[in-house]
Amino acid sequence: MEMETEERKALVLDAYDYKGAPADRAQTGGWVSAATILGIEVSERFTTMGIAVNLVTYLDNTMHQPSATSSTIVANFSGVSFLLCLLGGCVADSFLGRYWTIAIFAVIEALGACVLAISATLSHLRPPPCNPSVAIKCVKANNLQMGVFFLGLFAMALGIGGVKSSVSALGTDQFDQTDEKEKTQMEYFFNRFYFLINIGTILAVTLLVYIQDEVSRGVGYGICSAAMLMAVIVFLSRTRRYRYKKLTGSPLIQVIQVIVAAIQKRKLEFPSDLSLLYEDSSAKSKICRTDQFRWLDKATIRSDGDLGKNGSETPNPWRLSTVTRVEELKMMIRLLPIWATTIIFWCVHAQVITFSVQQAASMDRSIGKFHVPAASFSVFFIGATMITLALYDRMVMKKSRGSRGLTNLQKIGLGLAISVIAMAVAAAMEQKRLKVIRANRNTPTSTLPLTAFILIPQFAIVGIAEAFMYSGQLAFFISEAPKGMKAISNSLFLTTISFGYFVTTILVDLIKKITPGKDGGHGWLAPKINDSRLDYFYALISVLSFINLGLYLVCARWYKPNSSENAKDSDVNASHDEEKPQDVSNS
Fold it and tell me: To pair with 540 at 20 to 30 A between CA atoms, which of 35, 41, 193, 493?
């Protein structure tokens, strides 16, 4: 008996090794395995940011696209990448598992970067350089050239969606939360996660951007591809050492099943005794029924035809759901108003890697004899984020003496408020740049006699806002979701980033249509940024952000966490165990 107990302690009961046997605690998992998995995310961030932050200048200067079109392409690329995280999560949960999802989609991302490297290297896959001696100075990229470019770009987006959906989850699978030592190691993993991926980002926007601008785009994109392939090789090398979890089915499918069952039974009457609503008595954790969104409770009414085929006692999930599963869906629905009112922030964020980079490209970026690449100005944004997180951790969390500092909803609100200020400052800086343009309209120069470092405030303020926004959103959506839907809730958070970029695209297209310019003048977003009224565009986003802030405050006041046993820790200051992702951003 004692020997059996020792054997059980040596095994991780809810995890398996690569052969499908119970995982040996000493031979699998732990910090080294988690760090190897983290290497994939660092390489992904290095690759993605290294290409994304400098992509708008490539589209402008090499592919000869109008400035608004370039910004739209970059915004769509970022939006699609995060939206595909939903697809990646479904594939991982339902078919491939996290390990194979990461391996396959990381290779796809590497191949996408390789296609971009080929596109940037072969002369017939990009238009000729601009010729100032002819009437039509610049020839836009043709359909073939843009087609190859988009093939590489959106192959990367597909890869990013698959990798991001599973990396952090597989990393946490390497630790047994029932073991105190491993639980501490997992906290260490989360504390370093956000910090390390930002180091990858800083390397991308400094070293990699410099190589792209001063050596070759092809070389820079080739480095990205090689970095991803190297990370995959290292990742695969520890296959025998990872811990794996069995597939449990997609939470998204479970959500659809509840809705379908409720619709099918919409005409049925509730029983007089609501305790007769269906619940799985063998379930380890249950959630008490609530009256909100009562129409969904129809899915729990028993009726003929609910049992499976061939006399099975197991209910057909498309016909009958448990009270707990219905309540899990209700908890997700309560998150939606907060989800909707955080989208506009990522519209603000999109300006940092699109129009703000274009502004910097038109200005003097020299420090002595050194010429700072325009895309490298993103380092001020990333640096501000990291410094803010570090100061918050040291000055607020350390002095709070047991309190968790600002609540998640307060962090989100603060991020939204700061973003309003950021866009107002950006509008003011653009007015200053436009004055210099008007004063030097007759001077033949491609670089304005105005230092680009006046743009630091708008980069830094957005970075400060993101420090609160990202950490608050991530922790809120993870901690407030039901235990069985953490993955889909994390994907829901990522879609706010995606939709933020898509909102930027819609705004750009709308502004181009309604402000075409009068009497031969230019609209707000002209083909060339120096002919635009970007200050008006920034001011509009600031006003929209202010209105959205008011809506968010209403939604935050309305939001009430589930008070059942399963959600007892899901107040605005989420419990320690469920809020570990917040520790990521507080490192």
Answer: 493
Contact 79, 505 (CB under 8 A): yes
What confidence score (pLDDT) does residue 310 get? 58
Instruction: Give the contacts of 552 (CB within 8 A, at least 6 positions apart).
Output: 338, 341, 342, 412, 413, 416
CA angle 459, 463, 468 (to 5 degrees): 155
How confident is residue 571, by pLDDT bands cut at 50, 70 and 90? very low
CB 320 within 8 A of CB 261: yes
Which range has highest mean pLDDT (143-147, 325-329, 367-371)? 143-147
Quote the CA–CA distance of 470 and 382 in Å, as a whole number: 12
**Rounded to a whole number, what is the distance in angstroms from the first to the last CA of the chain?**
44
- Can you count the helices (H) and strands (E) in the chain? 18, 6
Of the listed ranges 54-63, 271-280, 394-403, the least confidently predicted one is: 394-403
Q: Number of C-alpha atoms within 13 angstroms, CB side, residue 257?
A: 19
pLDDT at 3: 43
Q: How far is CA 179 from CA 30, 108, 172, 474, in A?
A: 11, 36, 13, 25
pLDDT classification of 2: cutoffs 50, 70, 90: very low
Query: Which tokens hold the place of 163?
Result: 């990798």
Do residues 30 and 15 touch, judged by C-beta distance below 8 A? no
Q: What angle do CA 391, 386, 419 make, to 5 degrees?
A: 90
pLDDT tens-digit profile of 490-515?
A: 778 888 988 999 999 899 889 988 88
Side-chain-side CA neighbours of residue 408 (13 Å): 31
Helices marked H in 444-562: 456-479, 486-514, 534-558
On whether the CB atoms of residues 331 and 305 are closer than 8 A, the answer is no
Phi/psi of residue 200, nearest 5 degrees? -60, -40
Report d(CA 81, CA 249) in Å as an integer: 23
Residue 551: C-alpha distances to residues 114, 208, 506, 507, 557 (Å) = 44, 40, 21, 19, 10
pLDDT of residue 556: 93
d(CA 521, CA 531): 9
How many Å apart are CA 587 and CA 585, to the nearest integer? 5
Distance CA 249, CA 242 (A): 21
Residues paired with 385 in a beta bridge: none
Is the pLDDT higher at 365 or at 580?
365
Q: Kindly list the structural domains of the chain, giving each domain's residue range(s) and its CATH number in brackets, ordered by start.
A: 11-249 (1.20.1250.20), 257-332 (no CATH)
Predicted TM-score (pTM) of this structure: 0.77
DSSP conformation letters of 415-447: HHHHHHHHHHHHHHHHHHHHHHHHHTTTS--SS
Three-state DSSP class for 199? Answer: helix
Alpha helices in 304-375 (DSSP H): 323-340, 343-352, 355-361
Examine the pLDDT at 136 and tell me if it is beyond 80.
no
Task: pLDDT band for 86, please (50, 70, 90 cuts).
Answer: confident
Highest mean predicted confidence (pLDDT) among 130-134, 277-281, 486-490 = 277-281
